[in-house]
Design a protein that fits this description.
Layout: E1 26-28, E2 37-42, H1 53-67, E3 71-74, H2 91-97, E4 108-111, H3 115-118, H4 122-126, H5 129-133, E5 137-139, E6 143-146, E7 150-155, H6 181-198, E8 203-208, H7 222-227, H8 229-233, E9 241-244, E10 250-254, E11 261-265, E12 283-288, E13 292-298, E14 302-309, E15 314-321
Bound molecules: 2-acetamido-2-deoxy-beta-D-glucopyranose.
Enzyme class: hydrolase
EC number: 3.1.3.2
Keywords: Glycoprotein, Hydrolase, Iron, Metal-binding, Secreted, Signal, Zinc
């Protein structure tokens, strides 16, 4: 396979990016001197502050301060209803810059695209010009963020979903740089497989917009269950967490035969869909139908995930300890 040096020119010099082996662009994210890191993750948010987006943002600011977060992850559907029109679309400032104003949130944001982003000008969200407007913004299709104790694998999941490709006259999706679907998906999967196989990181977190496991409106995403999940569950890869949005709620699901935790953090703005479809296979640890967000705190040995509602109340926590020699304890 063709390997190339991938250099992303960026106004943010702190992460100059070189991909030596894997094909995915990689970013180096510094963490704290004690080798711990913390972050917030949020999805399905950009509504110019409405539907409680501003309230959630305020609580993110408060919790972000408490935890001294290192960065923020956006799991997609960044701008409603149909992404950005172009790089000068005021929605970028109205839904991002002017909303997440807290001091603690002035950190790097790493974002993937959601299906609503593809309904507009998806390429605009990837454009470095946006970083001149707000230097926090970094959105790519699929990429990696490396830290001393964890690696984050961001995957562009929208192209996987077949129904978005149907009726192109009726539904606009910006498939520039993506089509044809099959070729694109197989490259994404191949790149991820190489990246996971080369990873020696203690913690591995995969981030995508679409659900793999969900008990709400959208349920499981069949294409991801078929094509992505087997790779995430491969014992030699040892993926710890899969984080997504798409369903506008908070969820924590895991199953007895897999070490992966499925975390839905799609509560960035419009929520309360009132749809709950539990299945029998998985263990549902949290389903919260309203707005909110999650935090992730990692050290070499410990992972802790906390779920917060729109008022910043803790509604669920999960933690795991592992030592160097026994991946799952
Ligand atoms: C916003 O949050 C408040 C609770 O703080 C809740 O009463 C209200 O219904 C929410 N609004 C929407 C649109 O979800």
């Amino acid at each position: 396979m063709h390997r190339r040096l991938f250099i992303v020119t960026s106004t943010i010099v702190s992460f100059l990016v070189i991909s030596s082996f894997a094909q995915l662009p990689q970013f180096e994210q510094p963490i704290k001197p004690d080798a711990s890191l913390s972050l917030l993750a949020i999805g399905d948010w950009g509504r110019k502050g409405t539907f409680n987006q501003s309230l959630v943002a305020k609580q993110m600011g408060r919790i972000g301060e408490e935890l001294g977060i290192d960065f923020v992850i956006s799991v997609g559907d960044n701008f409603y209803d149909a992404g950005l029109i172009d790089v000068y679309d005021k929605s970028f400032e109205e839904s991002f810059t002017n909303i997440y104003t807290a001091k603690s949130l002035q950190k790097q944001w790493y974002a993937v695209l959601g299906n609503h982003d593809y309904r507009g000008n998806a390429v605009a969200q990837l454009d470095p010009i946006l970083r001149d407007i707000d230097k926090r913004w970094l959105c790519l299709r699929s990429f990696m963020v490396n830290t001393d104790i964890a690696q984050f694998f961001f995957i562009d999941t929208t192209p996987f979903v077949k129904k978005y490709w149907k009726h192109p006259k009726k539904n606009h999706y910006d498939w520039r740089g993506v089509a044809p679907r099959k070729k694109y998906i197989s490259k994404v999967l191949k790149d991820l497989e190489i990246a996971l196989s080369e990873s020696t990181s203690i913690w591995k977190v995969v981030v995508g917009h679409h659900t793999i496991r969900s008990v709400s409106e959208h349920g499981d995403t069949d294409e991801l269950v078929d094509m992505l999940l087997p790779m995430l569950e491969a014992s030699n890869f040892g993926v710890d967490l899969y984080m997504n949005g798409h369903d506008h709620c908070l969820e924590h699901i895991s199953s007895d035969d897999s070490p992966i935790q499925f975390l839905t953090t799609g509560g960035g703005s419009k929520a309360w869909r009132g749809i709950f479809n539990p299945n029998k296979v998985d263990t549902l640890r949290l389903f919260y139908d309203g707005q909110g967000f999650i935090s992730l705190q990692l050290t070499k040995t410990d992972a802790k995930v906390v779920y917060y509602d729109v008022d910043g109340n803790v509604i669920h926590t999960w933690s795991r300890t592992k030592d160097c020699c026994h991946p799952y304890i």
